[in-house]
Predict the structure.
Amino acid sequence: MIFQGDCLLELKKIDNESVDLVYLDPPFFTQKKHSLKTRDNSREYSFEDTWVNIESYKNYIQERLVECKRVIKDTGSIFLHCDRTASHYLRVALDDVFSASNFQGEIVWAYKRWSNSKKGLLNSHQIIYFYSKTANFKFNKVFEGYSPTTNIDQIFQKRVRDENGKTTYKREQTGEYELTKQKMGVPLSDVWEIPYLNPKANERVGYPTQKPIILLEKIIELTTNKDDVVLDPFCGSGTTLVAATLLGRKYIGIDISIDAIELTKRRLAKPIKSHSLLLKNGKDSYLNQDKKILEILETIEAIPVQRNRGIDGFLKIRNIVKPVPIRIQRESESLDNAKDFLLRARKKSGFKFAVLIRTNSRVEETLFDLPKINEDNLLIAEGIEAFSKIKVRLESLI
Amino acid sequence: MIFQGDCLLELKKIDNESVDLVYLDPPFFTQKKHSLKTRDNSREYSFEDTWVNIESYKNYIQERLVECKRVIKDTGSIFLHCDRTASHYLRVALDDVFSASNFQGEIVWAYKRWSNSKKGLLNSHQIIYFYSKTANFKFNKVFEGYSPTTNIDQIFQKRVRDENGKTTYKREQTGEYELTKQKMGVPLSDVWEIPYLNPKANERVGYPTQKPIILLEKIIELTTNKDDVVLDPFCGSGTTLVAATLLGRKYIGIDISIDAIELTKRRLAKPIKSHSLLLKNGKDSYLNQDKKILEILETIEAIPVQRNRGIDGFLKIRNIVKPVPIRIQRESESLDNAKDFLLRARKKSGFKFAVLIRTNSRVEETLFDLPKINEDNLLIAEGIEAFSKIKVRLESLI
DNA sequence: TCCAGAGATGAATCCACCC
DNA sequence: GGGGTGGATTCATCTCTGG
């Protein structure tokens, strides 16, 4: 079900204790107008965050939280996605409405992000507060794998305390370790690394503050079962509802904007979910470079590049990365082939110079030879040692 | 300089605007007594966190923050290490004293930790608030490497906005991309993954809530230079002062406990810092399993083990890990050798059964053969397909 | 029914020792 | 002596029991 209108009014139409999970991503207290155009510029979504002060913002949220509490079942939970400038006030509101004793956790959604050049730390996380209505809340335990450093052999062993209260491993009379029967894995942490919705992801519908579906799926799976009811009073582009549908949950969505409601309906008719290769395979799968290549890059102090065809790394001079792509000739590769690859990469992205490092060179160089630049602006290092001269030469060129 | 006493009084003895950085790790609002014995049971450190209510706790902190603000230079900063149950009130206090406009960031210290069996998410982060005294605060920019998934090729390209306000990459008249001259790397994120101070670390001094030195070093390096003054009004075991010393900063430490002061002095005389291999080399360095072995483990749904000799993985049945070690016979390895390795591992840790998977077996099995258990309680699977029968058999045995 | 205190928990990871 | 691995130790814990 989807309702259009101010959620304070719309929530009043919902029965007491009829909802299992509420997820809220309320407007932020930024005192700015947000807007974003769709990719083809056909449509513009916007909303205003305007409150006279932080107290009125807190009140605005709090009176809506009261209604949320009313509609949540005794086994239900609420997740509040917070604005970083006002998260503390939102949590005070949650304490007021749901009581501090029902605080179940502070979830950190961490991601990598395009950087800006502001003074200070690069903001790369958001906070989601998790409160339950009662102590008897529904919670599906989720387990993850062990850290590679864990001594799994050992964690099966039972323990006892000695007279000082220190624990030791329990042994049977035979001297053998006493073992537990099974292990479930590591309980889900409250720090979630989920890639920020890529600006080009199919999932994107051009709505500001859109959240990744997997973030919502994770929340829904933790605290609801099939056919449970999920409510989002600020449903925006409808991510929560889409995630609920994909997981076989029922949903109620509310938003004040007619545009948002229409968008949500369109989205629900044809849900798209990006498959993040990064999440599926882990960061390591991108580390497909030969160990040898990486070692060479390290010795010449270049930074490795994992995903640009034809390029193995970029030049670094005194810890500053320069726009000079580097390729290391493969053993199985002819010089011309290597040049070709590199040249194409250089031209594609408009780099002025590029360096090719030969690893099977038979050419002898003397200390006095100057590095040569060929007609395609490639500098060819006859071996790794020859690279340092090239570095010096390049410094004067770029 | 180290002072013993309530920091509210001791702070009053410090001159106006004489400190560059304040780091506070005040007692938490846990309403409990915390204590920990040193490893040799020679000494016990403890403190109590008891306030009548959250308001009195907030006031307690706030009046100390006012003194902190007074002693901080105009270019100085303050970092407040927060309690999970009261962080929102602490931030309100910071807003009150330092003003919301001087909020510079919310740092997430994320770590992995031994778990416990609680309902809900495993708490594995702590929050540190970063406020400056004025907009003109000292900040040393720190850069990190690019993520392996970054398209480094592209970030050199300059951008312009088109008539619709969309950004596109800038091209020169020739059609070539226009490039920037250099890149520094990625600005330091506000999510810091630093291993929790390990129970076995030599750095540990037996004081409850002791923080890792590198956490403090990171903070000190961000906002101070050499010979600057670092102040910790709740210095506890003195980690902040140790970090300051190691980085050539001056320090002022205050603590109410005489024990803590003595410990701090001893520690400063002989600072010990654990060097974390995990941090230095990254988690990946522990992943030493063969790709082929990993693939086999994946097909039989076992969990891989990275650091136990003779064992490649553990049995998993319906997502539950069982105390049954598994080894996959290497190509270069005789059956007897493989058996030997596995048997030794089985006995060492007291496992009742173990499974060896042959990958070069010539033995033909029929569907009707029951898996055999040899005299050493090893079950030998003649190939990967044969494993499923063993799984069924084991389920009745364990 | 609630609170205090005892007892059980469980994986991370540094250290020390081994080869 | 250097790399690898067995072992120790912890909890700003968590749960359960009993008065």
